[in-house]
Hints:
Shape: globular
Distance between the termini: 16 Å
Number of helices: 11
Structural class: alpha+beta
Largest sheet: 7 strands, parallel
Strand content: 25-35%
Amino acid sequence: MNIGCVRFFLWLLILFVFSSCGGGNNTGVIPPPPLPPPPTSGASVSGKLIVPPTYQIEVEPNHSIAKAQSVSSPQAVFGAASINDPKFIIPERNNIDIQDLYRLTTNENVRITLTIAANDLRAVDLDLFLMDENGRILAVSEGLVSTEELTVIGPGTFLIGIRAFEWFSSYVVSIASLGDIASTEGHSIPPTAEFVPGEILMKWKTGTASSRQKSSSEMDIPGIVHRKSFPDRVELITLAPLHQPLQKPNGLSKFGDLATSNDHALKVETLNMIKQLQGNPDVEYAEPNFIRKKTAIPDDTRYPTQWHYALMNLPQAWDLTTGDNSVVVAVLDTGAPLNHTDLTPRLIAGYDFISDLDIAGDGDGVDSDPTDIGDDPRKQSSSFHGTHVAGTIGAATNNGIGVAGVTWQSQIMPIRVLGIGGGTDADITQAIRYAAGLTNSSGALPAQQARVINMSLGGPGFSQTQQDAITAARAQGVIIVAAAGNENSSEFSYPASFDGVISVAAVDMASQRAPYSSFGRRVDVAAPGGNSAADLNGDQFADGVLSTVVNDKGEMSFDFYQGTSMATPHVAGVMALMLAVNPDLTPTDIDLLISGTHPNSSRRITLDRGVPGRDDFYGHGLLDAFQAVTAANEVPGGIVTLPIGSVLSVSPSAFSFDNFLDTIPLTITNAGSGTLNITSIASNASWLTTEIATGTAPLTTVLRVNRRGLPDGVYNATLTIMSDATLENATRTISVKMKVGGPTAGNVGTVFVLALDETTFNPVAEARTTAAKGYSFSTTAIPPGKYFFVAGTDRDNDDFICDIEDACGYFPTPVTVLPNQVTSGITFVLGELNSPQNANEAVKHLQGKTFQRLTNEHP
């Protein structure tokens, strides 16, 4: 690539960052900026990347059952496959060969994701196979997209196969406890979007002759069948099914009767019909009937404490209000059970809007019974997702059993929109209208309109039908909250990305962005979503969010889930608490309070995270329940007398340093009013130190451990924090545990570290590092200034790091480089793989971008 092209693309990159628009368009004539000035000093920056032990590279040969590479969950393996590699022949099908084999033994249900590194998916095609331990095929994912996915139902031992159907590509195989789907960008129909084959949502234009017709069957378009009419001139129409096989571009069928082609062909016809309808002058819009899915699923069945409430200063908010029964929160999800002792008392009448009997699974269609019957047709591993979400909003609290909810007195309206495989926009849209007290397809209305709607669901694809319903609900004074998505992507997920919806990202126990949480310019706020891959407080339980569930036998229990689905009901619950102290709050009031621009309150209701001010990872920050309720009361209409004084808040109350962790951030906040000064932060162990010992809250410091010279084992210490708090206890203690010994690092091959100018995001220096170097790095000379540091692999050798198949990480704050000095200690984690659902190269971390290397010399 010539230097002019490099400079031209980087200039477009700068424009993207400052315009905050999605996608990036490399067209037009724009003069390139001048090259960075030459270094004026010998300043450099050094540091180390932390690569989790769960990241490994492919070990060859691995093309036979005997030599299959062992993998576990969670794990990500970086490999490559070519049609010319040695092959394993499927015993039952001698025309199918597999280049790479992995052996997985699991006791749980896991998801396997194959991410293909090649940019040209027309010339390159890899496929994913799941086999039993003898090589018999159990399932195949063989699409024509950048990723393949399969689900493994444990326990058992399985073989994972990677087949190079066309040419060659690097890849990543990710194995993890079952997660969920989210995200895409813009109003186009993304290639990864799921929708019902043969179904179209269409709206007539006002005043046209067609808008007065009763059914689409009167349209003179062959192949269209009218199915249902909705309010506001919206109709659901269907196409006749097709029966033609899916063909590869070269005309060869891939796997014969293994391919499920009819759905694919019908989807193609659906998109073609949509395009035809969009050209009809009487049609306002036509769009797919998208399928939305929940954004988290169960992890474990243990019972710990609910660390996530203290993280957002909820106990202090409870001192002001625990809610009000006049506030109704609608939960649009899988429904809710009738027999959970710790949830049922909080439920009011709801509705079931699932119209498709195959999705519903309950033997009937739309009716007044929103019971969560489970979403597994085999009745073995249902998520009971809506039950968990509802419990976070308002499990029966202070009753001596189970778990607490964010609210203690609000009413929860369960509305069933998700069933087997998810739910459709046609059903979800009518449920939104029902909750808001608007006319809808059921012909029914709730006894009382909901003031808050929680949608812990999502998927790619903009829907005008759903946007219109949200706009109408918001005009009724309804506050709508939705999950940003779990794909670690800046791509848009809906309904979170619709106008008028509060989009919620997730943080972990350390108040840092959860590794799965999607991000971008549509994110408004963050809340606890958990991270089940960690145990930062060392309580032997994964750091998920604990709430109510039932099982497929109908037995009530409590379980850990993780995801933005879990973060969202935290926000919805706090919205209900805010309405309890000020029933006059409007959706606009909430928007202004979240952004810190409300004319009646100077109080910030979020704790700033990441770079100062609003950013794409946390939105306006982590929601602070106490400050949110206090600010709501300051807006005209507030009805509560508030106490005055500062409160020392530290969460969590324990930390655990796994063997590959050396630092963990600690945040201290004022959960009251006025000023809170931290007078001392002291450790009782020499191996545990803190970077900051005094300051004014909110204050974030870094806990650091030093294992040098210590024998293998587990070590315990106490951190004492002292303050001048005027309310409650002015001193808090934190238990800290440290592990020494065991594997501490993984291997992802060569990693490139870029120093990016703080203002322009131009790369000014590059360093390479590998596992053989312990992933330590040191840059060449850099001019004095401030820089962001980002690191990633370049699996497809296209000179861009942090692409969809790459591991990627970034240092969270700018680094100041001084003249003639070496800045050391820049240590950060090479985090989760970038979104496997996204095929757009110009997205991802740090302002949602990939980054071009300074050189095109491949390692």
